[in-house]
Specification:
The structure holds two protein chains of two kinds. By secondary structure, chain A is mainly beta. Chain A contains no helices and eleven strands. In chain A, strands 2, 4, 5, 9, 10 and 11 form a six-stranded mixed beta sheet that branches. A five-stranded antiparallel beta sheet of chain A has the order 1-3-8-7-6, with no helix packed on it. In chain A, strand 7 and strand 8 form a beta hairpin. Chain A is globular, with a radius of gyration of 14 Å. By secondary structure, chain B is mainly β. The radius of gyration of chain B is 13 Å and the shape is globular. The termini of chain B are far apart. In chain B, the strands form two sheets. In chain B, strands 2, 4, 5, 6, 9, 10 and 11 form a seven-stranded mixed beta sheet that branches. The chains are: A mainly beta, B mainly beta. The interface between A and B is medium-sized, with 24 and 25 residues.
Chain lengths: 114, 114
Amino acid sequence: QQQVKQSPQSLIVQKGGISIINCAYENTAFDYFPWYQQFPGKGPALLIAIRPDVSEKKEGRFTISFNKSAKQFSLHIMDSQPGDSATYFCAASIEGGATNKLIFGTGTLLAVQP
Amino acid sequence: GAGVSQSPRYKVAKRGQDVALRCDPISGHVSLFWYQQALGQGPEFLTYFQNEAQLDKSGLPSDRFFAERPEGSVSTLKIQRTQQEDSAVYLCASSLQDPNYGYTFGSGTRLTVV
């Protein structure tokens, strides 16, 4: 049962453009929504995270937008650079839960063309 | 070390062989997680330790999978009688007791069962 749906599967953006990746979740108990970046041969690395008490969080060129009523959240990468080319995963967890295990989306392969 | 260390990086096993994958978490990290990442997919939760206690093993796909963390630091994931469907990257992650700061993942062990 896939609890976090991610789209698109792949994305090509020109250098300097905006990359947008979307995720939707089903479990309303989720209260922590991180985004991870993964380069080939490496483990995922935490990029930015949001909790449902805010609708937007910005860190540098990366912004998360969160819509609690729609159960959707998205990652925006402004001024995309070739070094941003990687696979991006959204995830969700229940912070007060027993394990804080993350439920990941299926990933978006981003290619930023120079 | 500064990061989560996993060994071996690559493992080729003949179907039916037993394998053992090692994870050395960041010093002082109480929580340790194992995830399985199939090709082109997001990581999927396997099991969770808090110190030496295995608090959640709900993600282990069968009784052929076994994990331990006897002294609350290094962890081993063991797969008995490997099958082709076990081929994946096995990721270990650790975090402080409060995972609000996010997990730190290792680079994983790529297991190929032939």
